[in-house]
Amino acid sequence: MISDVEHYLKFRLVKILNENRNVIEKYLDKNNRNKYVGNKKINDKLSVNDFLNFLSFGKIVEFYEFTIKQYKIREDKKYISLLKEIVVLRNNVYHNRKILINLNEYSDNYIINPTILDYLKKCKIDKNMKNIISNSSIRQFTYLLYIFNSFVTSKEIKNHVNELLNDFMFDRVNRNKNYYKNNKLLKMIYKFFKKIIIKEFSNSH
Predict the structure, then answer these.
(1) What is the mean pLDDT of residues 12-18?
(2) pLDDT in tens, 149-168
(3) CA distance 81 to 6
(4) For residue 40, what are the β-bridge partners?
(5) How far apart are CA 113 and CA 137, in angstroms?
(6) Residue 195 · residue 123 · CB < 8 Å
(7) pLDDT band at 204; cut points 50, 70, 90
(8) 160-195 burial, b if ≥16 CB within 10 A, otherwise e?
(9) Which of 90, 89, 87, 64 is nearest to 77 (CA)?
(10) CA 183 to CA 197: how far, in whole Å?
(11) What does residue 40 show for φ and ψ, rounded to 5 degrees?
């Protein structure tokens, strides 16, 4: 799902820029007058798509934030903080960090993102369950589900992801539910994501 989000974020940027390299030049001038990204020098003749392929996911999100400011696309501002958290999730997964080990850790200082608050209301998630989103891993997975449906336009990809999520939630987890029947935290997390999957990724459960 993260690779799909990255791909469609690139596609979104290509549509916005429409081969206009002025924003790329401004971005490079602002960040590095030698026009290096990492240890790679950017060729002035690169297409927008080739330029984006030079960038890591984190740098694409940074460039996206820069681009929507340049074009004054206010309606896309709500995605930036969500994408930055997905970058953290992607890096943790890539480096094989144990992202599920601290599911019982919550932040008292977390202020729920208004966009996600509306999303959870839409999924009929009550106030008691909303508290678990202050856990970083749960929050990042929630953001990924929201952004995936917001960015990805391919019905084929969406159907494939729907099948995978439904198979996991309603087949594999249920098949092994006796392992977790006494774990209140995991049961609450399951109910939280089940509501999202039912509302946003399935019409059959």
Answers:
(1) 93
(2) 999 999 999 999 999 999 99
(3) 15
(4) 37
(5) 15
(6) yes
(7) very low
(8) ebbeebbeebbeebeeeeeeeeeeeebeebbebbbb
(9) 64
(10) 21
(11) -110, 130
